[in-house]
């Protein structure tokens, strides 16, 4: 596990930016999805150890950011939402400088900077002053500096903001390749559902500082799955049994029921109910809920 938060809260004066957040982030690409002001940037700043939580426990790469901020930051890559690039410095010089700050020796830093920038698809532009680069090119520099020191986990805060649709697609491909080419885990903050759906293996949805849903997108266990149940014969006796077991049931009156699973014991509960009623089973399978439905549900 790369990151674990338990009941983490952070307020700025009267503004509760992050409230009672409990989540775990494992390997792969995890989307941190939520509208503007949901607390994504604040959460990332707690992970980086740049802010201290008011309450709760955070563990990042097995360490507590409050105590081990510099150690954690050495092992993380970070692309903030807004860059603060020095306009007169060349892209390659800048990324090399950051690699040096991360502790790489001069020759390694130069090699790694050139390699990281090439990997993002930048060409001759790497020698141009940062102030002359387009938004798309700047975002590539942002990504290059986030991976230059070969971090274990890469945090990217709204890395596609300001990009046109084509540039956005290219950036999402690169983010996907942080996992496939570089073998690194990523937390991708975004307010765009389709973006997260396209590249992430899992998603945590935040709204007004709270976690409103966690969902796996890679076919793994999903908390909010629905089960499609087809039985032999009438279901009238079965439905109350399912409800008693705490399941939500729709489709009464037919032999096909949609059973909403609150957790992964639902399959067992369905089997028990079937056995109790002596009803035969024809089909039982998971129907993964689309992220769209989940987001809509989360947004109330
Ligand atoms: N330093 C701060 N001082 C006061 N309020 C803050 C500060 N940082 C964040 N906030 C407030 O905390 C809430 C969460 O903000 P945050 O930037 O974490 O959200 P976000 O999901 O990253 O949104 P965005 O994508 O718009 O940045 C907002 O209401 C914001 O105004």
TrEMBL record:
The keyword Transport applies. InterPro entries: AAA+_ATPase, ABC_transporter-like_ATP-bd, P-loop_NTPase. Keywords: ATP-binding, Nucleotide-binding, Transport. The keyword Nucleotide-binding applies. Residues 3-233 form the ABC transporter domain. GO terms for molecular function: ATP binding; ATP hydrolysis activity. Pfam families: ABC_tran. Belongs to the ABC transporter superfamily. This is ABC transporter ATP-binding protein. It comes from Egibacter rhizosphaerae.
């Amino acid at each position: 596990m790369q990151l674990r938060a338990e009941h983490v809260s952070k307020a700025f004066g009267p503004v509760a930016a992050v409230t009672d957040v409990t989540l775990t982030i494992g390997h792969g690409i995890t989307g941190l999805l939520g509208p503007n002001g949901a607390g994504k940037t604040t959460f990332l700043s707690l992970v980086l150890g740049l802010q201290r939580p008011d309450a709760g426990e955070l563990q990042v790469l097995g360490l507590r950011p409050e105590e081990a901020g510099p150690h954690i930051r050495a092992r993380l890559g970070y692309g903030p939402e807004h860059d603060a690039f020095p306009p007169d410095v060349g892209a390659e010089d800048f990324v090399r400088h950051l690699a040096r700050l991360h502790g790489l020796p001069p020759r390694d830093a130069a090699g790694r900077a050139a390699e990281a920038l090439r990997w993002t698809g930048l060409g001759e532009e790497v020698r141009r002053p940062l102030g002359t680069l387009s938004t798309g090119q700047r975002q590539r520099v942002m990504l290059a500096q986030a991976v230059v020191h070969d971090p274990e986990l890469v945090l990217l805060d709204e890395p596609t903001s300001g990009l046109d649709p084509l540039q956005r697609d290219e950036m999402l491909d690169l983010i996907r390749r942080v996992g496939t080419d570089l073998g690194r885990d990523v937390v991708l903050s975004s307010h765009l559902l389709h973006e997260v759906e396209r590249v992430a293996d899992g998603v945590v949805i935040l709204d007004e500082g709270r976690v409103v849903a966690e969902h796996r997108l890679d076919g793994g266990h999903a908390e909010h799955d629905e089960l499609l149940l087809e039985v032999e014969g009438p279901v009238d006796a079965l439905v109350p049994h399912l409800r008693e077991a705490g399941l939500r049931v729709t489709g009464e009156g037919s032999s096909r029921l949609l059973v909403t699973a609150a957790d992964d014991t639902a399959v067992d509960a369905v089997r028990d109910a079937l056995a109790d009623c002596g009803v035969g089973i024809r089909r039982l399978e998971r129907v993964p809920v689309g992220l769209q439905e989940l987001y809509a549900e989360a947004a109330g």
